[in-house]
């Protein structure tokens, strides 16, 4: 009887020990990569609360600047690129400012008195120039699923051969894939891609943004030498790092925030 009790107790201990050993331990998330060293030529991009302010050989271009920053920058600004329809253009912004936007945004700009607002459709291209310097701007266009608003991403091709992509609030990978096909057909390589990412706002409240998985896949599709992920709020950085490990991406990437400066 004693021997039988010992065997039962031993079996119970063995089961308990086996159960303890079978509890899975989640691996730690991959670390965020450090910011890469970027070569400075003639350009610099400064992040401004989700927007980008670009200076290149004296040419000043702003993309989606928030109202206060647009008000401050407008007197010296050459061009404003708008990826969606702003709700606030900023106070005292001169009405002859040259604006490029999707059709909805250009119409809203003209109704607000901006006489030099032009619509840029998907696949279309404009040359923005001032004496001694120019840049070609092309659009990638889609409907944002948040408000069904028309939004543009922009490819900027500078006269030194540097190509820069700015996603804006693109949250649809289908037009990005089509854009990449044309980019590859033309033999072009992206040096930089600025990709907005963050927690999607409540349905019906605002434009959606790319989540962690979409941001990583967008970077993989675009294939820039450096992908700059702009944290628009609520970004799961550990989840982003995991998403990048699931993609084939040969370039460098890092998470940036206002007012980071990015040379190119």
Structure notes:
The protein is α/β, with parallel strands linked by helices and 264 residues long. The chain has a single domain (38-263), classed as Ribonuclease Z/Hydroxyacylglutathione hydrolase-like (Metallo-beta-lactamase, Chain A, 4-Layer Sandwich). 26% of the residues lie in helices and 29% in strands. The protein is built from six helices and 14 strands. The strands form two sheets. It has a seven-stranded mixed sheet with strand order 6-5-4-3-2-1-14. It has a seven-stranded mixed sheet with strand order 7-8-9-10-11-12-13. A hairpin with a 4-residue loop joins β9 (150-158) and β10 (163-166). α4 packs parallel to α5 (212-222). The model is unreliable at 1-19 (pLDDT under 50).
Keywords:
264 residues; alpha/beta; Metallo-beta-lactamase, Chain A; seven-stranded mixed sheet; 29% strand; globular; disordered N terminus
Present the secondary structure layout.
Layout: H1 2-21, E1 43-48, E2 51-56, E3 59-63, H2 67-73, E4 79-81, E5 98-101, H3 103-111, E6 117-119, E7 125-130, E8 133-143, E9 150-158, E10 163-166, H4 173-185, E11 192-197, H5 212-222, E12 226-231, H6 237-245, E13 252-256, E14 261-263
Parallel strand pairs: 3-4, 4-5, 5-6, 10-11, 11-12, 12-13
Antiparallel strand pairs: 1-2, 1-14, 2-3, 7-8, 8-9, 9-10
Helix pairs in contact: 4-5, 5-6
């Amino acid at each position: 009887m004693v021997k039988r009790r010992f065997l039962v107790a031993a079996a119970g201990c063995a089961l308990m020990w086996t159960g303890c050993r079978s509890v899975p331990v989640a691996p730690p998330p991959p670390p965020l990569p450090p910011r890469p060293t970027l070569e400075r030529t003639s350009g610099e991009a400064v992040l401004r609360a989700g927007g980008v302010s670009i200076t290149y050989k004296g040419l000043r271009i702003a993309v989606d600047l928030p109202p206060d920053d647009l008000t401050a920058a407008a007197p010296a600004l050459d061009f404003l690129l708008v990826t969606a329809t702003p709700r606030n253009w900023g106070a005292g912004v001169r009405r002859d400012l040259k604006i490029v936007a999707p059709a909805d945004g250009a119409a809203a700009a003209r109704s607000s008195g901006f006489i030099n607002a032009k619509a840029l459709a998907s696949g279309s291209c404009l040359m923005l120039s001032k004496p001694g310097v120019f840049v070609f701007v092309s659009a990638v266009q889609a409907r944002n699923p948040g408000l069904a608003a028309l939004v543009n991403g922009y490819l900027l091709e500078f006269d030194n051969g540097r190509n820069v992509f700015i996603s804006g609030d693109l949250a649809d990978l289908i037009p990005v894939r089509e854009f990449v096909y044309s980019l590859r057909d033309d033999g072009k390589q992206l040096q930089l891609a600025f990709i907005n990412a963050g927690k999607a706002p409540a349905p019906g409240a605002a434009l959606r943004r790319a989540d962690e998985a979409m941001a990583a896949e967008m970077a993989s599709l675009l294939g820039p030498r450096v992908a700059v992920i702009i944290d628009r709020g609520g970004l799961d950085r550990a989840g982003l790092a995991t998403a990048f490990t699931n993609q084939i991406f040969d370039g460098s990437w890092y998470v940036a925030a206002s007012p980071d400066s990015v040379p190119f």
